[in-house]
Amino acid sequence: MLDYLLQIIPTIADGLKVTIALFCVVWVLSIPGGIILALLRLSKLPVVDKIVEAFVYLMRGTPLMLQILFMYFALPIMTDGAIQMDDSTAAVVTFVLNYAAYLCEIFRGGIQSIPRGQYEGAKVLGFTYGQTMRTIILPQMFKRVLPPLANETINLLKDTSLVYVLAMNDILRITKSIVQRDFDISAFLVAAIFYLIFTFILTNIFNYLEKRFSVYDE
């Protein structure tokens, strides 16, 4: 049993390259995307607000797997091949759009939780809207949204397994192929341990950030 585990662990670990790469790219791109969408929703332009609201509703109201399949298979057909992406690009674009929509609502709630007096105080001091957001509002917003941001980050790690539908060699696809080849479910246990390890790391990072920022509330 131990020999078999030592044999399959490196193979499953190869899938980490795809999983971690997708996770990092999506996380880095979806955060600014979510902030931009949140600011657009809070703008004083009703048309822009409604368009972003409809986009967020669409992304949150349909399954992520359906969105992946649509982006990779249906979109090229609908556009007669004008828009066609490889599996990696389709996965990244779909994940970024989906998670930017979720983060939009988290960030919007965080921004709206900041007292209006801070905006007025910044205006009195001569701050522009951009300066107020960048130096006063957004830093406080990030501190307040850390718990839901942590949840979405962990969800993103787990959701990366959905790319197996595009035949990308992530952890889940490699694990499934090993189980089907060897008729042994030990590979599922190894994959679960990999996910749990990274979830543990992410949880502790966010716990550290929450404790660090909570010092300034005392």
The radius of gyration computed from the alpha-carbon positions, rounded to a whole number of angstroms, is: 21 Å
**CATH evolutionary superfamily of the domain at 17-167:** MetI-like
Indicate the percent of residues in helices: over 70%
CATH topology of the domain at 17-167: MetI-like fold
Give me the secondary-structure category. Answer: mainly alpha
Q: Write down the overall geometry.
A: flat
Query: Biggest β-sheet: count, sense, barrel?
Result: none
> What proportion strand?
under 5%
Please characterize this protein's 3D structure.
By secondary structure, this protein is an all-alpha fold. It has a domain at 17-167: Orthogonal Bundle (MetI-like fold), CATH 1.10.3720. Helix content is 81%, strand content 0%. Helix 2 crosses helix 4 and helix 4 (87-112) runs antiparallel to helix 7 (146-159). The longest helix is centred in the N-terminal third of the chain and has 40 residues, at 2-41. The relative contact order is 0.14. The model has no long low-confidence stretch (mean pLDDT 92).
How are the SSEs placed, and which strands pair?
Elements: H1 2-41, H2 46-61, H3 64-78, H4 87-112, H5 116-124, H6 129-144, H7 146-159, H8 171-182, H9 186-214
In short:
The chain is an all-alpha fold and 218 residues long.
Give keywords.
218 residues; mainly alpha; MetI-like fold; 9 helices; 0% strand
